[in-house]
Amino acid sequence: xxxxxxLHDGLLLLDGAMGTMLQSRGLRLGERPxxxxxxxxxxxxxxxxxxxxxGAQVVYANTFGANAHKLAGTGHTPAEVIEASxxxxxxACAGTNATKxxxxxxxxxxxxxxxxxxxxxxxxxxxxxxxxxGVRCGADLIxxxxxxxxxxxxxxxxxxxxxxxxxxxxxxxxxxxxRTFTGCSVSAMALTLEGLGADAIGINCSLGPKEIYPIAKExxxxxxxxLIVKANAGLPDPQTGKYDVTxxxxxxxxxxxxxxxxxAIGGCCGTTPEYIARMRETLSGKRxxxxxxxxxxxxxxPTKTVAIDGVAVIGERINPTxxxxxxxxxxxxxMDYILSQAIAQIEADADILDVNVGLPExxxxxxxxxxxxxxxxxxxxxxxxxxxxxxxxxxxxxLYNGKPVVNSVNxxxxxxxxxxxxxxxYGAAVVGLTLDENGIxxxxxxxxxxxxxxxxxxxxxxxxxxxxxxxxxxxTASVQQKEVMETLKAVQMVKERLGLKTVLGVSNISFGLxxxxxxxxxxxxxxxxxxxxxxxxxxNIPSMxxxxxxxxxxxxxxxxxxxxxxxxxxEKGAAPVVSVQGMTI
Amino acid sequence: xxxxxxLHDGLLLLDGAMGTMLQSRGLRLGERPxxxxxxxxxxxxxxxxxxxxxGAQVVYANTFGANAHKLAGTGHTPAEVIEASxxxxxxACAGTNATKxxxxxxxxxxxxxxxxxxxxxxxxxxxxxxxxxGVRCGADLIxxxxxxxxxxxxxxxxxxxxxxxxxxxxxxxxxxxxRTFTGCSVSAMALTLEGLGADAIGINCSLGPKEIYPIAKExxxxxxxxLIVKANAGLPDPQTGKYDVTxxxxxxxxxxxxxxxxxAIGGCCGTTPEYIARMRETLSGKRxxxxxxxxxxxxxxPTKTVAIDGVAVIGERINPTxxxxxxxxxxxxxMDYILSQAIAQIEADADILDVNVGLPExxxxxxxxxxxxxxxxxxxxxxxxxxxxxxxxxxxxxLYNGKPVVNSVNxxxxxxxxxxxxxxxYGAAVVGLTLDENGIxxxxxxxxxxxxxxxxxxxxxxxxxxxxxxxxxxxTASVQQKEVMETLKAVQMVKERLGLKTVLGVSNISFGLxxxxxxxxxxxxxxxxxxxxxxxxxxNIPSMxxxxxxxxxxxxxxxxxxxxxxxxxxEKGAAPVVSVQGMTI
Lengths: 585, 585
Ligand SMILES: [Zn+2]
Ligand SMILES: [Zn+2]
Ligand SMILES: [Zn+2]
Known about the structure:
Two copies of one chain form a homodimer. Chain A is of the alpha/beta class.
């Protein structure tokens, strides 16, 4: 993919606006710009040619809204429009093979469920139709752009990856606050799209370069991917409609973007071939700054990113194991009960929710994705998809909005082969349990060896090191008292020697003992001290969340004890009550 | 001291009974045996001579009951009786200088306070009178024997050490259960007497060799000192008065004692020169087994030994700092209140009680020993004498019954010079705080360096390594959040690199924060995980004792969770309640 090499070697100059150029060449308000490729192909080709002459190395074909939804009632299919648009772009490139033609894919123009009525699979089908057409008529790459809904991007990106071999660029459109119109954050965009296999990501439209700059800067610390910026030429004058950033100023901004490592730059609304030409004059020969990307463990939904750079709590309550009422709710398809369990955990400050719906009576392949979608409609915490059923996992991974974590794989080769490709394809993090076909080894060193094996397998599948979390397995103190310390030692070894994040289900430790909550609380604190990052606990037990809050103060994670004071200052004489029987299992 | 060299080089053969021998030579029932030295010096000398000819290397002069209390009304002073008795023994040794004469010091014959009315200082004065006399007439060593009251032994041993340069042997008399008549345990005897400077310790009288064997075996693991056994010749036949262990059987037992490292063997009631002669025949040339003594950190009272081989809790409540009611009680000399605080802590399972009575209004040099004595009259837990006043410490150390711990010294040379000699003389353990004239260093490494300095100083003063405990100092998380981890690191360094036991006052951590109890509980667990042995806490807060109990389960100190289950099994739905305000500071 020579275009990707170009991106890595230096600055890739993109083209400028198509829409505003068409308006200046006769496109009337309300007219679909893509139809111009059929009605006025020479105009479209002419605009492309101007950009190519100005120095653009990539031109975006006039296919932005060429989807069946937007074209409904025009009498034209996406395939027709795309064919005409790509032909115009290719015609403009005639005589040069340095310029590449991008299939431009914009938003469908209808909200996806749950906010709107368009299903994820329907969105996927609309995008697939465009991708197929673009591939057929020889587009060199795919650009998904001006997106505000991460879920819609996921449908488009999956459609692109599953139906073509072309490089895929994705740019989204942010508002001044650093979020998209639908609330998607920069970090969620980066984590999700890098995971799903985008080749370059960035920001376009809506704002001028000055407003985009801090957003691009934030993006640069959340991804290793090459960065793209296509800013508008500032804002249009309400009276004249003229944009307020001159080509000179635009070039100055481009230099600033290059200093933070942006490597593909063009223009969006209000920019013209002059902007591109001025950039070529000034920027050619200059190289974007090398970026240093500190690997970060994180998962997300569009609106909430959980960076695992301290303790993050995984709520354990969405799980039928040992929970009579939950079992019943699953069997009776009582979604309200399941959602109430989720909400209660979020209100108790869980950072992530585990989702396990495995029951013999239940078809997990249907139930897991359904519960995931229902949960994502009401809560913003990232989810841990907890299943050993590969099909259930794939169905849920496909519909999950953001970057989830999959729980779990283990040291068994067959399990690794079955699950890791899904983790890689859908860009999730994954929990590896330190057991294999021979069971759970008693000694820390042996569990560490399995962790190493899991990590090696994950790396072979192209999963990043920081996305592998290890669960060293909590045994039951009443039965395997000596192994309690082996678990703690294993956690420390995995943390110190492999540098991986660690997960541990806590409450199993006290099974069969009285005073369970006290044992759980102490074990939690001990595990945190040994390097546990992601305790799986019941966040509705105050002593457990209390242990996390206190640990964060004592290990300097809660600076100035701000969170702790907020939580406990008002609870005079009331906080945290420990009751041996109070535990929900 | 050649006798000590003899003890270390091989078996030291002691003599046999004097009392039963005198009875067989005319002593009538009710007559004081010591007076025989005045009335029948040739008989006494003759018995000694028989023992010397049988091979005894040490003969005990006929001074067992030669104290002013027992001699009252006889018309003879201890000095007269001792002079006559030692003279008789020396006369028997004439012509050989291989045999040594011991001043034999038995019990006073009256109970010491609080059980009886004899004051510790009075007892000391009675013993001093005997020691002075023995020294004057040239005794070669002092043997304190047939003791059942550890406190009385302490008075005698202090009198011997402070008023002579002679070697001092101490043997106590045990019952079959492994305790003396007053309840003193083997470990308490060993810890206390080794600390006070006895040169050899052991067991005599009351039981035959078979019954003494397990007790001697237990003693051998609690002391490094040479061991002495002088068993009776079994038990007397109620009809004939004849003892039931023959000289042959007695020699067989002596071999068993040598196998566990006993290096001074003689006989007590019922033994005769024949027993000694048979031992010489069979045992001469044989060497007692070398003992391996694993250094053990422990403190005690006569009836309770706390071995620091896991977590041991020090109760913090006997301390006026920040406690209004306690201050008032001290000022009003309200002992009942102070004792009630002690009892409450013992009922809550504290292992050791800290005793601090420092107040500007109070003369600590009087109050500390008084409180110590009053406490020891009602509770059996060992005490931590908590004062920086050397005179107060010495007064309390002198009157303490058992082996206490002194809190505290620090890295300041002047403090070490003032306190460590007292610690050494009275055989206490000592807590060293990792601060010096420059204050508390922020970094773990610097605190560790002070710990090292304190240890080196203690070793120079002859204090044993296992008797040095280090307090790495808890700072306040609200003010010095980063130093919390430095304290934990320092604890771990001291534990791992110096192998010393560690002490830490816990509740200071949460000063100035809400949710104090939660912070205290978590910090306690974290500190235990880093190697804290001796948390100083309020044992009447269930969450604190709960944290200790849970830790002991999780770190395999409470095997099979026996203690934990006992404590929590019955507390259905009730245990341990944490309340933020409930903490007594
Ligand atoms: Zn635009
Ligand atoms: Zn008297
Ligand atoms: Zn005897």
